[in-house]
Amino acid sequence: MPDPSSLRDSTQIVLPQEALRGLEAQLDEEFTVTIFPEGEHHCRIIGSPVEIKQASDFLARQGVSVP
After folding, report:
1. Rounded Cα–Cα distance for residues 49 and 52 (Å)
2. DSSP string spanning 14-35?
3. Which of 4, 38, 46, 65 sits at 20 to 30 Å (Cα–Cα) from 19?
């Protein structure tokens, strides 16, 4: 059985809201992901492993450091 943390890591990205400023609409248009506010300063991007990988690559090309 897969480790739950590895599954969670492949289906979500947690970033400071500041890092996504100006990119939310483009993420929403280009990828099948959902963006949730996570507290006051972070957001959670949730999607399938394929969509999260593509969104992560997109964010990296935009200069956003993705953990």
Report:
1. 5
2. EEEHHHHTTTHHHHHHHS-EEE
3. 4
With bands split at pLDDT 50, 70 and 90, how would you rate the model's confidence at 48? very high
Mean pLDDT of 48-66: 94
Q: Which helix (H) or strand (E) holds 58?
A: helix 49-61
The residue ranges of every structural domain in the chain are 4-61
Question: For residues 3 and 18, what is the distance between their CA atoms, to the nearest angstrom?
Answer: 30
Distance CA 15, CA 9 (A): 13
Q: What is the DSSP letter of 52?
A: H
